[in-house]
Amino acid sequence: MQAIANWFQQLYESTGLNFSVFYDAYDWDRYLGGLKMTLLLSVTTILLSLMIGAVGALLQGSPSMLLRLPINAFVVVFRNTPPLVQLFFFYFGLGTMLPAVEAAGMRVPLLSNVQWAIISLSLFAAAFNVEIFRSGIEAVPRTTIEAAEALGYTRLKAYIHIVLPLAVRVCLPALNNNLVNLLKTTTLAYAIAVPETLYAVKQIWSESQNVLEMMVVLLATYGILVGVLVWLMHRWEQAMRIPGYAR
Amino acid sequence: MRRRQKVFGALEVLKGISLSVRKGEVICIIGPSGSGKSTLIRCINALQPISSGSIQIEGIEVSDPRLDKLALRRKVGMVFQQYNLFPHKTALQNVMMAPIHVLGQKRPEVEARARALLAKVRLAGKEDTYPGELSGGQQQRVAIARSLAMRPDIMLFDEVTAALDPETVKEVLVTIRELAEDGMTCLLVTHEMNFAREVADHVYFTDRGVIVEHGPPETLFTAATDERTQRFLSQVL
Fold it and tell me: By three-state DSSP, how is residue B202 classified?
């Protein structure tokens, strides 16, 4: 570790390229903190958006108008408006309307900016996931569902055990795309001062005057994060491959 | 006591059909395409609603709007033309799923039964194979085992050999015949006339939504009285 720090210190002294995060412990900690926050945002929003998407797609296929209508409205609203505006709406709009609570002798908002970011981004991505899951569900043959019905499966049980597992396999490539987008969209949380990677790096470059170098670090960070996500999704896709099941 | 299962119906596809099946009987329904054969047996397990009339299966009224579909479908198993296995599950899992998910039975007990059923349909050794890796005839036999795992009282077969290669038709028919010999009540929609003749206790000939003629196979196949039945049989036999 020390060798790496020394190398970057030397690089700075000889060329003026200042990758302060790699030799300055204070900058490194801030960067690491940002990275952790980005990971927290990504993992929670991915999981939440998948859950909301799956439930939404189930309700969207329901015979009841009362269930379908709210889901369709949700999809339209969250798909047709910019995610940054949604974030502002939640944090500045709804956030200020909620009552404050007492915590450690201070009055703090009921939901923190991190929580609002998670809620907002999850809903944004979920709207797309609903549509993605729907495309997968529609690809499941009607006759397969009929076979489940004939065996006594209820709509919900057939959805959980048969329709969803098959639908996910069909829509994985599209899901992959949306989750990659979601990971990158977590940078929007910057706008409500969530200390994620972009926010942390911005702070570093403001103080150390190394915009270009930190930009490179930032881009490389997201490039690697998305690479890992894509690799994981690919592994998942492979694990779910059904022998002899040609589409 | 002899339980009586009645099927009455008056539908748009089916215009006033009346037939009854006794426990342990094997009934074959034959007739030209579009005559409502499949519709008829799909009505029996409520896959298709009936607009008027009445279907009773061991005291369950299928046309009742508050019909307990689960109770009905526990009694009535169904096998489809296109097998409709769950492609993401192995043969064994396909057979085990419904008893565990629907009936909440214990896994070890269900697994033992499922293995026995697969052996019964001559698929021992194929337990861990996925449907996509099996031939049509093998898939159809898994589908039969899957249906039997629910321990139904009646089995419906909807043209189960129509999608099969000629050489695999026989293995499926052998399985069904064994079932019939075991005393299972069976309703078959079929184009296999020789098979119908051999296993059926009673054969119904349908055309354009009505039962034109019915009777024991030896009578229907050799001494049909209705002109439409005669014409159909002369074309297929």
Answer: strand
